[in-house]
């Protein structure tokens, strides 16, 4: 638990200083600004008192009323922590139960930001916002009510700043699977984000208290702060701040990877949803020996089964006596496709000797959730063993998985004995399969090994690249505009492993959609280039200015081989699209 809390705390600290938080920093800074007197007016008049009480003849002296400490920074940050923690964990459940739109929380946050801004400009509005706190006897608590409401609104707008820790929290909340670990992770993450923001808010308070110009112009500054908050709400609503965030370098990515995506964090975060899989953390990825990694988690939450009699489910409990290979994959993943020949060869070779293979299809894109799409691609790829459609990622979470592809070996007693992530280690995996088959039945006569060797992977090939406004990487050129047709122009130079757009494109969460005169250029190093495409139309492929081929796209999104050379090379790829084509992800081999 301590490790989980530490991961959450450090993840929150990293998020609070990342580019995603920059748009709300002006509000946090101004939140600590002019406090003390109501409405930013002059401080209370001094009162008179006698030097030893109220006796006649006492000398009257001026004794200013003690200044009330401005606690607005604490109120704002407290509201942010409460809002973030509550709605991240329970927001999806509440919205679903009430039948509200998915983005209602974002608009509530924007509305609160506008109301607070109006309150700073117009004192009657501020008094209206503070009315719910009027019955609290402490006068200053009453005065900080508006600041707390501001924090509540910021917490709703703060949710999209996501890394692996926040992703784990959000998935748990969306699935309604709350546990002590999830709550601890959420609170520690919220505390981590609050600390830098509190420092920033306190800095704003100190400036307001120490700088003479601030004290003399408190009322004017409150109006300025209100206008800034209203303007920020409008910028957030129109996604104007996105361009700023994309233009800035992701200076926290290295720290985030070291903390949130470390081996320890992976084990802790991926196993938060089900204690039945906690023993998997006892084993390591890809070791060259069989170990005991605990009881195999259930394959459940499956929406459909393929390649089984009548679509009947496969129950691991009924597979006792057999060796089972559970292969996590998704059909548009080139890494998965490269590993499939090995898995199919093992199944064909050893199924009569007691091997069962179960392909758990855990989708990466929404179109991969459609049963007919998976069935078509399964047939095309020649997969004949049972395939489970894990559309809700239930089994994925049961196994603490984080990779495509991933293979788990289960012995004849139902114990996980080995797992390996990614491509490669095929000869090693086959030998362990043979060892488990011999262990299950010492008398079994095994056929000769398949001879499947590890493919020679190009270590310096261009990495997989997604065309998604949520996780785009390697892009250069005009700032990407979300979810609306926008004209782009190629830059003068496109470096290695970078791509750019030209013509009209619509950048969406799942894919980029081509419009008029749409082109895409990519400087790559690889032997082959693949792109998942959907829609209907044609894509012309040029390499270093020379037309290579024209690809016809029709129907279900699927992977298309654009380039297939004998050896790896560095070249400039240019693609020209007919309008309506959807481009999802590049992979390179």
Beta-strand content bin: 15-25%
Shape: globular
The secondary-structure class comes to alpha+beta
**Count of helices?**
18
Fraction of residues in H or I helices: 25-40%
Low-pLDDT residue intervals, each spanning 5 or more residues: 35-67, 138-142, 159-163
Distance between the termini: 41 Å
Task: Provide a concise account of the structure shown.
The protein has helices spanning 2-16, 25-31, 72-98, 104-121, 123-130, 139-143, 145-158, 164-175, 180-210, 212-216, 218-237, 241-247, 253-260, 263-270, 334-350, 371-380, 394-398, 426-440, and strands at 47-50, 60-63, 304-306, 323-329, 355-361, 387-389, 406-410, 416-421, 465-466, 486-488, 498-507, 512-514, 519-543, 546-577, 582-588.
Structure description:
With 589 residues, the chain is of the alpha+beta class. It contains 18 helices and 15 strands. A hairpin with a 4-residue loop joins strand 11 and strand 12. About 7% of the residues have low confidence.
List keywords for this structure.
21% strand; six-stranded mixed sheet; alpha+beta; seven-stranded antiparallel sheet; 589 residues; 15 strands
List the helices and strands and how they pair.
Elements: H1 2-16, H2 25-31, E1 47-50, E2 60-63, H3 72-98, H4 104-121, H5 123-130, H6 139-143, H7 145-158, H8 164-175, H9 180-210, H10 212-216, H11 218-237, H12 241-247, H13 253-260, H14 263-270, E3 304-306, E4 323-329, H15 334-350, E5 355-361, H16 371-380, E6 387-389, H17 394-398, E7 406-410, E8 416-421, H18 426-440, E9 465-466, E10 486-488, E11 498-507, E12 512-514, E13 519-543, E14 546-577, E15 582-588
Parallel strand pairs: 4-5, 5-6
Antiparallel strand pairs: 1-2, 3-6, 4-7, 7-8, 9-15, 10-11, 11-12, 11-13, 12-15, 13-14, 13-15
Helix pairs in contact: 1-9, 1-13, 2-9, 2-11, 3-7, 3-8, 3-9, 4-5, 4-7, 4-11, 8-9
